[in-house]
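Lab meeting prep.
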Amino acid sequence: MLDKLVSSVTALADEFQEVMLEGGRFEFLLDGLGNTFIITFGALAIGIVLGIFVAAIRTSYDKNKESLKLRGGIGYVILAVMNTICKFYLTITRGTPVVVQLMISYFIIFSLADNGIPVAIFAFGINSGAYVAEIFRAGIMSVDHGQFEAGRSLGFNYFQTMRFIVIPQMFKAVLPTLCNEFIALLKETSVAGYVGVIDLTKAGNTIAGRTFEYFIPLITVAVIYLVLVMILSWLVGILERRLRKSDR
């Protein structure tokens, strides 16, 4: 029994060396992993900026709708139109698969692009922005209304109150959820190969296609994703524990 196990492990190690190490094929995975990180961090940056903007518009409309409606004027009309645009964006983005959005971005919107990485960053950023916006909106709405009143009593207008009082508290509340969105985004980038980007998954598939061995490359890719997610989940757990301690 032990001899069979040893021989199986030895055969697997030999196959790994033949498939991944000979000819420097593992370098495909390193390049793909680098592109995966570039796309993930770039898309997350776009998603955070876009999410803050959309969440601010939607919460401003929800919290001030009645008073603005009574006051009337162009301000209410502009905010209502922007809120409608934001709701349309959220509905379309969250209601369609990210791979379809990626292909539309590459083959239609940026059909002349010769580099798929910026297009992938754009597509995943737009997609992530919709989910980040709802995370931020829930965080803003969870802040006690007395915080808004405290800001007004200090002489802040609505936007200053949001900037200096509400948003810092909101970030603390939603940071663990935002980190989980980052983990989800990391895994979602595995479809970037549809537009010719050599990400981690595409690199594994390329190695498999060249060696006609699919088990080792794809299992290696799966293990890398698993290790990355476990590390990030561990860091999120540490962050959540520290935030709970700071609340005490």
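Slide two material, second protein:
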Amino acid sequence: MLPSGYVSPRVFARKLGICGNFRVLLGLSGGSDSVSLLDMLLEDGIDVTAVHVNHGIRGEEAERDERFCISLCEKRGVRLSVSHEDIPALARRRSEGIEECARNVRYAVFEEEMKASGCIFLATAHNADDNAETLLFNLARGASAHGACGIPAYRPLGDGYLIRPMLGIPKSGILAYCQSGSLEYVTDSTNADVNYSRNRIRANIIPELKKINPDFISGVSGFCESIKEDCFWLDSLASRFIEANPAPSMSELSQLPPPVASRVIVSLAKAASARPERIHVQTLLSGIAEGKKTSVTMPGGIIAEIGPKKALGFAKDERRRKPKQDNKTDGE
């Protein structure tokens, strides 16, 4: 029997207006979460194909995981695609952290496989505990309201959508599901390494919070849903304002509630290929409130400027452009 908290891909399809038959691509690691999700999808009668990414990080353990996924899919009659990557080498070339590089490569592989297999949906096995860890991680880094929304249940990905059917199921429920169904799975030894921030949150912080509220995971899920509803409403107000005022003046922005005005600034900045941070938005809001000319340079090399007689505008920071070098020598 499918557990409480599981959301069928058919539900996501209805929300997104997708009709007819469709196939779901499952990101399969071989761990308890993705093995459980594979079983749930098959129990639900969903047409599933799977993809496993061997990141080349954990040596023989990674090879073991790959062999396990191949064997599992053969037993369950599921088509499996396996991708081999050398994440440590790639991370060095890109000057990225191992985790960041692994995630970027993994989702690039997922998108490619979605196209190759004709899948509308990519399903990942994130659960309610993952959502709580994400919220705490975001709060520790100084999250905005959007960061307090936790993990989205679905979002666009390539030409399709990423869905998370198990986001409402706690880890304890997943382990119980594995036990009741005698599902075998592998364990990633790096999950116990508290040098990783998320592992530290999982091992040290969440257990302490559960001492305060044993139902902490469920409480986080409810909190995130409440914040999502608030953000959806505020975002819609900002979108309607932008439609009517694509280049808003200082007086127009000053009449908006700060949560809406900040969303207008962020949305327009992103449309101009800027990557605004909280300090940049707050600086612009302060200038608007005081009615004085304000200019800030945002990541991405974009200058945002507004003044009493100047609408909010964005332009490339010309000072960052390097002059072209003339490498010609005499006689060339």
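Talking points for slide two:
The two ends are 78 Å apart (CA to CA).
The CA atoms of residues 57 and 90 lie 11 Å apart.
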